[in-house]
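Sequence only, no structure available. Ideas?
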Amino acid sequence: MDTEQPENLPSTQETEFGDDEGLSQDSQADSQESTADTALIDDPFQSQEFLQRKLYFLLEQLKKMHTKLPEQFQLRISYELLAGLANSLLNDTIFEIVKGLMEIQHVTEKHLMQVREKVENDHQLEVKQWESKIQDPEELEHIIALMKIKHTKNMKETDMKLVLHLDQKVKDQQSTLEKAGVPGFYVSDNPMEIKIQMYLLDFILRLSRLKFEPNK
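Reply:
I predicted one. Tokens follow.
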């Protein structure tokens, strides 16, 4: 009696090859995961020790800067605020945000200065035009006196508009840094608080120019 052979069974060679291939793929996957884990551990930027060293460095630099401030501002900027600021600066993105805000501020100030200079030039041009038209010295003197009153009023209005524009830019900066999670920054019109925030901005800019060397 003949024994029926089961159909579609893989040959011994095919089975062995398939098993070897599966084992090879698993080994490669394990090897890749192991390599990635090792790289993560070896990367100093991901290590807790690196972050602790950087935090200590930032805090020490901030404390040195703090001692150079006038006493009234030293009292207003606490150690807790400095520690919180140092912690936020572990994220280098904060440095880039502050640099960007300062660049915008400088461009804005330059533009507003040009606006003011244009108003002054327009005033001078108007006076020269009257001087070229009027021949009578007394009449000219009277007209120039009127021009001076008008120009003074116009300049005060211009300066007020420029100040309001700058004030809004300051509030925009305060809001941006508050949303970024930088301690000490919030929207305020208080001159003392604004001055403190200016010192903190100066601290951040100075720190951005320092190079942290974790091995030293």
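The chain is about 80% helix and 0% strand.
Hope that gets you unstuck.
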